[in-house]
Amino acid sequence: MIVHYIQEKNSILNKFISEIRDVKIQKDSLRFRRNIERIGEILGYELSKQLSYSNISVETPLGKKNEALPSNDIVLCSILRAGLPLHQGLLNYFDNAENAFISAYRHHPNNDAEFEIVVEYFAAPSIENKTLLLADPMLATGQSLVAVLEAIKKYGNPKEIHIVAVIGSEEGIEFIKDKFPENTHLWIAAIDKKLNDKGYIVPGLGDAGDLAFGTKL
Prior knowledge:
By secondary structure, the protein is of the alpha/beta class. It has helices spanning about 15-20, 30-50, 85-95, 145-155, 170-175, 210-215, and strands spanning about 1-5, 55-60, 65-70, 75-80, 100-105, 105, 115-120, 120-125, 130-135, 140, 160-170, 185-190, 195, 200.
């Protein structure tokens, strides 16, 4: 797996990351969603540098100009529900992409810290031999992404996979490295060092789904 750690170099991305972490600012759910969306746009821009390109001729009012445009058949798949604002940010840039949605959530059978990942819903076009973008804002333990990969495999084999995440833990990144094909790219804005005993990223930002859409039962 090739890891692209975007916040390794300072940019305007730092502002959006700091605001989604800040307990005073993140309470504004509209602003939180918009910041996740903007982070998705930045990650999408960086990701675009790894796509395939082909030349086309564009006719302007004063002549013609050759331009290189992305030629990948992209399927953008977000993990519900937290992935929706990130999905929108990527879709703002890859507006011709096909769209897919998959559910994955933590189930605590014994009402303790132990959990399993349950995948119940998947709606997608064909992913066979296409470029799959998997959008999940929080890469904590990495178990959700692995469960999603196993579920998606039943519906076809993408040509290449790009994972797009906002914040991840070092442990989660190490966990998924050998679970995905070697040519998989991980585009991640920020990396934190550890998880707590409940498997949440520290310092992280809390529950991205709740911050974006409200608390759940």
